[in-house]
Every structure is written in structure tokens, then in C-alpha cells.
Amino acid sequence: xxxxxxxxxxxxMVIMTTMVGAWILWACAACSTPRESEFxxxxxATGMVDATDLPLGWGDRRSTVPEVSNATARSITYYAIGPGxxxxxxxxxxxxxxxxxxxxxxxxxxxxxTIPAAYEDExxxxxxxTFAANADEIRVACLSGFVxxxxxxxxxxxxxxxDMLTHLHGNVFEDRWLTxxxxxxxxxxxxxxxxxxxxxxxxKP
Length: 205
Description:
By secondary structure, the chain is of the alpha+beta class. It is 33% helix and 27% strand. It has one domain (34-199): Protein Transport Mog1p, Chain A, CATH 3.40.1000. The protein has helices at residues 10-32, 38-47, 100-114, 180-199, and strands at 60-64, 72-79, 89-96, 123-124, 137-147, 150-161, 164-173.
């Protein structure tokens, strides 16, 4: 004799259980994953270069979200003029690491990759880029060269602020697009922005 079933059908219970389990997993991931945190996004936005930090006319902006295995990262690049002169640019990358130890290691690695030991004597810190920074660690240096026959200096600022790291770079020219005086102001502005970002608290707006 067949015994009639009572309550909801088995398939409905399976679906409901699966949906509840999926929702719990999603909720936990949203709470625990720093990449989804509004606080992390606020720190990135606070430390990032914007058009007001650059000379007039630097409005062409490109943003990317780099995949970094142990950090949350954002990159932005500004171009001074249109297509055909991509070398007239300024870029910044910000990375937030899970700990200060991780950011310290990343700082050393970034300096080593940007300024290889074999060419370290060619990377010089101009007097204009020497200033009292807010960073825990900082390296600012420039490499002289030519692009399309135009003399310029490729300059980089690599700086660490607690668990945050930034790499600012730009091509600096003598009398056009981006001068050393303008790049100095940019470096100082980024240093101030990154310091503010590192001091933000998740408990305060």
C-alpha cells in the first residue's frame, strides 16, 4: 500500500534549502570580502589623482581595475592631448594590502621593478622633487631620455602609507605639457591625498 506524502514536495524543499544556503554564502562574502567594502572604495577614491590636480587640458582619463592576487587595486591614466602622442601621460596605481607587512614587501618589489639595480645610478632625484613627505616610505626619481626627439624625464613616485601603496609616474618635459614644477605639485598633492586615505576610519564618513 502506498503511503501518501505530507507537507511540501521534496523538490520544493530542495530548492528552498539551496536558495537559503546561496543567500547565506552571498551575505557572508559581502561582509568579509574587502574588495566589496564601501570603506575600501572610499580609501581608493580619496587617494586617487583627479583632473583638478593636473594642468588645464588633461581631461582624457582611462581607468582600470588590475587583478592583483593579494591586494585591491585601481589604476588611472590621464593624457594631455589627443591620439598620436600617448607618451604625454600621467598614471597612478593604488593598492591596498591585507597588512602593513604585505605593503612593505610590495614597496620593495615595486622599487626594484621600476628602478632596476643595474640602472639605479641613472635614476636621479631632482632637487625639485625633494620634500617632506607624509609617507612611511617613499622613493622619487627620474630617468632622462628622448621621445620622438623631444628631451624629457620619466619620473616615478613610489610611496607607502600603512597598508596602502601608490605608484605615480609621468613624463616630464622642459617647457610643455607637464613641467617639473607642475609634477612637483602633483607629487605633493598625491602624497597629501594618500595620507588622508590612509587615515580614514570605517566608523566615520
